[in-house]
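Quick review question:
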């Protein structure tokens, strides 16, 4: 990991996401890009502020965030960036143009500047991105170290794509990977495929020399709810999932499940795009 791109809208949530990005940079020596996007009509949302005052105010706030971030990570390269356009499109394109990058966003940012990462905009970022996205809820505190990473494994072909990034995070934080085979529906055929997938995942962990455990869960109800409850019982503080692809009926991370995970998971989510699938969201 060489570049960490943080979307900022000056809400408490996005600034909390920045603190997590700094913590990640300290582990990876990555460069941090603090990005604010001036969106069409953003000045009108601030009432009395004209466009010139809006940009100056944003620059001043970015400088304050830069000062705090440099104090926390004095050895890291950190810069601020102002873009213009649609927030989700500009920030994902910016990240895509960087080598070995990851996006860090708050999941429910709300402010007078721009409701940048609330609801559908977060989904658009996840849908459009070609790099991993780390989604941080405002309730997630920075003072807890990353120790247990949940990696759900389903029957889809692309499910093992998440293992490379999962293993990298496990190494960065000396964390343990919790591989969880998702048996839904609970048929003999499904369990057979899950065992094969888990064996592959276990082999990857062994080759990489990271700590891991492997379990399966029989799901008879809602997948997202069952996985979240399992993660809570295991005190998980990061979950890694593949990005949903709405036309892929083999994946368990379809529309409603991914949205439910983003809205209700008490731990951060790391969403990995499917490299074999074109983006479902366009500018």
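Suggested answer, residue by residue:
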């Amino acid at each position: 990991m060489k570049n960490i791109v943080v979307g900022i809208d000056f809400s408490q949530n996005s600034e909390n996401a920045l603190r997590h990005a700094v913590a990640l940079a300290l582990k990876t020596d990555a460069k941090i890009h603090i990005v604010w996007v001036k969106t069409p009509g953003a000045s009108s949302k601030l009432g009395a502020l004209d466009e010139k005052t809006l940009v100056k105010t944003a620059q001043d706030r970015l400088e304050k965030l830069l000062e705090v971030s440099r104090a926390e990570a004095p050895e890291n390269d950190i810069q601020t960036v102002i873009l213009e356009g649609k927030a989700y499109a500009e920030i994902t394109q910016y990240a895509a143009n960087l080598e070995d990058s990851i996006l860090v966003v708050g999941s429910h940012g709300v402010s007078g500047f721009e409701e940048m990462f609330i609801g559908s905009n977060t989904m658009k970022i996840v849908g459009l991105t070609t790099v991993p996205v780390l989604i941080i809820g405002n309730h997630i505190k920075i003072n807890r170290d990353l120790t247990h990473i949940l990696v759900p494994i389903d029957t889809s072909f692309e499910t093992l794509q998440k293992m490379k990034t999962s293993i990298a995070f496990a190494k960065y934080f000396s964390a343990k990977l919790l591989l969880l085979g998702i048996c839904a529906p609970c048929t003999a055929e499904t369990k057979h495929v899950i065992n094969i997938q888990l064996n592959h995942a276990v082999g990857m962990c062994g080759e990489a020399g990271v700590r891991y455990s492997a379990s399966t869960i029989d799901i008879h109800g809602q997948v997202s709810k069952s996985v979240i409850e399992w993660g809570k019982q295991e005190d998980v503080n990061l979950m890694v999932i593949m990005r949903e692809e709405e036309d892929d009926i083999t994946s368990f991370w379809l529309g409603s499940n991914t949205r439910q995970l983003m809205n209700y998971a008490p731990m951060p989510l790391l969403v990995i795009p499917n490299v074999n699938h074109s983006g479902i969201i366009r500018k």
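Why it works: Confidence is low (pLDDT under 50) at residues 44-48, 109-118, 247-254, 278-283. The chain has two domains: 3-136, 148-272.
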